[in-house]
Amino acid sequence: MPVKFVPPSSARAGTRPGGVRVKICGLTRPEHVGAAAEAGAVYGGFVFFPKSPRNVGIDRARELALTAPLGLAKVALTVNADDALLDEITARVPLDMIQLHGAESPERVAAIRARYGLPVMKAVGIAEEADLAALDHYAAVADQLLIDAKPPRDAALPGGNGLAFDWRLIAGKSWQVPWMLAGGLTPDNVAEAVRLTGAAQVDVSSGVESAPGEKDPARVAAFVAAARSDVPVLR
Ligand SMILES: O=C(O)c1ccccc1N[C@@H]1O[C@H](COP(=O)(O)O)[C@@H](O)[C@H]1O
């Protein structure tokens, strides 16, 4: 029986005593891991999806994960992965969380959570009001939700497309598990996204890159600073 993931109180309550918690996804080099940690991100994501320009093999992901300092939670992003692939990833890469970014059913999410004993974050694509119902279904089985833009029908990737959805669809809403906002976030729009949605956690990939798969340390730092810009300064 996996241990239920208990997030920090800031993520549970939607309050931000220490600032919004940031995930930088699609790290492909040790410098990216360093830049994310240095900027103050609390999660770093490794993509295991061959079609992505951010794909890392298991060997590279292991090397990257071993360079991550304490305080940067290591997240494996997979898309409709079978047990054989997940067995290999979890056996070789030190991880803190599994992110499911495909069409995994609630039953599959529950099975993965039980099999690996790691917290599981399920991504749900949103384009319109009707898509929100899925969040309730997955909140019953996942440790966290990742609320992303629904990819275009012909997209090669189910995420990492730099597309935002209408944030007003989730403004003021909450679920029974912590959630993270994603999709088209950049250093320029993340503060507004946080203000509008009340997100306590945000996730970014393409918005902090200089080219696909190339994280730009200056953009990473600017993103984290902007995400936390609504934290009141204590004098
Ligand atoms: O980043 C990728 O390459 C990727 C590939 C397959 C599934 C998901 C992927 N990224 C996730 O998508 C969101 C949104 O990305 P973006 O910021 O709009 O580029 C991101 O937070 C990743 O978790």
TrEMBL record:
<feature type="domain" description="N-(5'phosphoribosyl) anthranilate isomerase (PRAI)">
    <location>
        <begin position="22"/>
        <end position="225"/>
    </location>
</feature>
<dbReference type="GO" id="GO:0000162">
    <property type="term" value="P:L-tryptophan biosynthetic process"/>
</dbReference>
<keyword id="KW-0057">Aromatic amino acid biosynthesis</keyword>
<comment type="pathway">
    <text>Amino-acid biosynthesis; L-tryptophan biosynthesis; L-tryptophan from chorismate: step 3/5.</text>
</comment>
<dbReference type="GO" id="GO:0004640">
    <property type="term" value="F:phosphoribosylanthranilate isomerase activity"/>
</dbReference>
<keyword id="KW-0822">Tryptophan biosynthesis</keyword>
<keyword id="KW-0413">Isomerase</keyword>
<keyword id="KW-0028">Amino-acid biosynthesis</keyword>
<dbReference type="InterPro" id="IPR011060">
    <property type="entry name" value="RibuloseP-bd_barrel"/>
</dbReference>
<dbReference type="Pfam" id="PF00697">
    <property type="entry name" value="PRAI"/>
</dbReference>
<dbReference type="InterPro" id="IPR013785">
    <property type="entry name" value="Aldolase_TIM"/>
</dbReference>
<comment type="similarity">
    <text>Belongs to the TrpF family.</text>
</comment>
<protein>
    <recommendedName>
        <fullName>N-(5'-phosphoribosyl)anthranilate isomerase</fullName>
        <ecNumber>5.3.1.24</ecNumber>
    </recommendedName>
</protein>
<dbReference type="InterPro" id="IPR044643">
    <property type="entry name" value="TrpF_fam"/>
</dbReference>
<dbReference type="InterPro" id="IPR001240">
    <property type="entry name" value="PRAI_dom"/>
</dbReference>
